Amino acid sequence: MKKIWFLLITMLFAVVLVACGESEEGSAEEADENNTEETEDNTGGETENQEEETSNKEIETLSIGFVPSREPEEIITATEPLKDLLKTEMETLGYDIGEVDITVGTNYEAVGEALSAGTTDIGLIPGGTYVLYDDGAEVVLTSTRAGLNNDSDSAKDWNDNKPTEASDEQVTYYRALMIAGPSDKGQELAEKVNSGEELTFDDVNSATWAVMSSSSPAGYIYPALWLKDNYDKTITDLDNVVQSDSYGSAFARLAAGEIDVMVTYADARRDNEETWESEFGREASIWDETNVIGVTPGIYNDTISVSKNSDKMDDDLKAAIQQAFLNISETEEGKEVISIYNHEGYQKAEDSDYDNERQAQEMVQSLN
């Protein structure tokens, strides 16, 4: 009987051990399967997230239009590095740009029209051009630039403090100047101003003037307001006016004595100081041979505007362009590129910033 009981207990114990072993093995296999599934799920999730993080939107071409405030070839050469700078910044902001196309408009209006038509995506245009074409363009940035040691509204003050130099202060406005050249008539007008005499309309009307296109703030609009404020006249009332395609060509005409007075931004003579003698053939410096005969109130700075009608433009792209130019302006290479327009930086802009410019435009339109 003892042997029989011993055998039964041994068999029972073996059955229990086998059952426990199978249970543990099943649990281990189930755990392995669960772990494998979790690993696969996590790996798949990470892959999807990585794809989302690295997937930039592709844009074949991003086009930029510049107004011809300097010689077009000079602008094209100076802004060539902008292509790679913009591609790099846009890539970090979620956009892969295949090509950046840079052009210089034949005049200010051409760039405004291209923005309105949607054939140009980005335009570096003055405030005056912007408000004329704001039905198809939207401002995103306003340029800042170094102030000048001269900021008086008195022409004589500018002549007494030549040469004009940059200051450390960053400003969001500039002035337009009426500059008389080395011609006999130009010197005659300058002499009256520097002696403290007030110029009459007959004085200014006896000179030959060079102006820019009608949407140029410094090259037309604000000089027209200066004539209105001082003589109740405007540019169309002057007997002898020629239109220049750039300030550079206007300075060339001034140096050659083909015109007596030109209108330009303050102080464009700093940008033409070398060419005055080297290319324009003058023997004396530009500071000795030119004088300011009129100064306008402050003009709000140039814009970077985007097209409302470009088929690729949306709020995300607009925000990326805005941030990209802000970033570019903070680099040394970027500062060198934007200096072609005397820009030293940018700040975010609102359409309402240019309400005064609209009033100026309305006044000019009513005068014409």
From TrEMBL:
Domain of life: Bacteria
Keyword Signal among UniProt keywords: yes
Tagged with keyword Disulfide bond: no
Region feature (Disordered): 25-58
Cleavable signal peptide: 1-19
UniProt cross-references to Pfam families, sorted A to Z: Phosphonate-bd
Positions with biased composition (Acidic residues): 25-53
Keyword terms: Signal
PROSITE patterns the UniProt entry points to: PROKAR_LIPOPROTEIN (PS51257)
UniProt xrefs under PANTHER family: PHOSPHONATES-BINDING PERIPLASMIC PROTEIN
The name this protein goes by in its record: Phosphonate transport system substrate-binding protein
